[in-house]
Amino acid sequence: MGSTVNILLVDDDEVDVQGLKRAFKKSKIGNPITVARDGIEALEILRGENGCERLPKPHLILLDLNMPRMNGIEFLETVRADEDLRSAVVFMITTSKADEDRMRAYGHNVAGYIVKRDPANTFMEAVALLEHYWKVVEFPA
Fold this sequence. Notes:
Elements: E1 6-10, H1 14-26, E2 33-36, H2 39-47, E3 59-63, H3 72-81, E4 89-94, H4 99-107, E5 112-115, H5 119-136
Parallel strand pairs: 1-2, 1-3, 3-4, 4-5
Helix pairs in contact: 1-5, 2-3
């Protein structure tokens, strides 16, 4: 794939945000990472609204489930209903092991549902998976 994949990390947990950034650094992956603290801020970044610079495509969204203001499922519902955003590649990264949450996420066409079991290892495994994914997969324009 020719162009750099921009990563949008949507997570309100600073420890998880730093853990994921560390995992990218350890894996020597220099893709730009933009952080949004909830679904509302993520939409502003994706749409270039409220003074946010629009996130360039191709992009990949790493989405937490439990967040204030707009949670992961609400964010997914909004993205999938938006003509410009509906083709976004989204991976859910969450602590929720609930079947209901997983089924709802896949019902909104997430590319994967990753459970944070042991954050340090989960982030390294997730980053390795993502790196392989974007080397192989063609992204929507």
